[in-house]
Specification:
Layout: H1 4-15, E1 18-19, E2 24-26, E3 31-38, E4 41-48, H2 56-60, E5 68-72, H3 75-84, E6 88-95, E7 101-106, E8 116-121
Parallel strand pairs: 5-8
Antiparallel strand pairs: 1-3, 2-3, 3-4, 6-7, 7-8
């Protein structure tokens, strides 16, 4: 999103989401993040923290849903499985929000519009 605070207002007003934490800087990714929840659905708002953030061009072009995220117990094992099935690693595992390992992969799916996947390792 271009502005987390403005997006928070809209999502809480129109879709009954509640913020689960205050916006937080993830320096390794050059983004600010904020998590929202309604029922069993969680979303993460991501805002560029710097001009050269990996998502700056995405938000400059209108933004929207960027990727799907899956929590996994063993990030290396999941990456190996996905690569064997044709996925391509975009970002190798690095520490992300809450010091959890994250990785990004691009899936080769012809029938979906969201091919970017984030894996987040379960906190130990």
């Amino acid at each position: 999103v271009k502005n987390i605070q403005e997006s928070l207002g809209e999502l809480t007003k129109f879709l009954n989401f509640e913020s689960t934490a205050v916006p937080t800087l993830v320096g390794s990714q050059k983004v600010n993040v904020c998590f929202l929840k309604t029922n069993n659905v969680f979303i993460e708002l991501i805002e560029p923290a710097e001009e050269n953030s990996p998502i700056s061009s995405f938000t400059a072009n209108g933004g929207g849903f960027h990727h799907l995220c899956f929590e996994v117990d063993n990030i290396q094992k999941e990456i190996e499985t996905m690569v064997k099935n044709g996925a391509r690693i975009i970002v190798e595992p690095v520490k992300g929000f809450d010091d959890r390992l994250i990785a990004f992969l691009l899936l080769n799916m012809k029938n979906t519009n969201c091919n970017l996947i984030e894996l987040v390792e379960t906190k130990r």
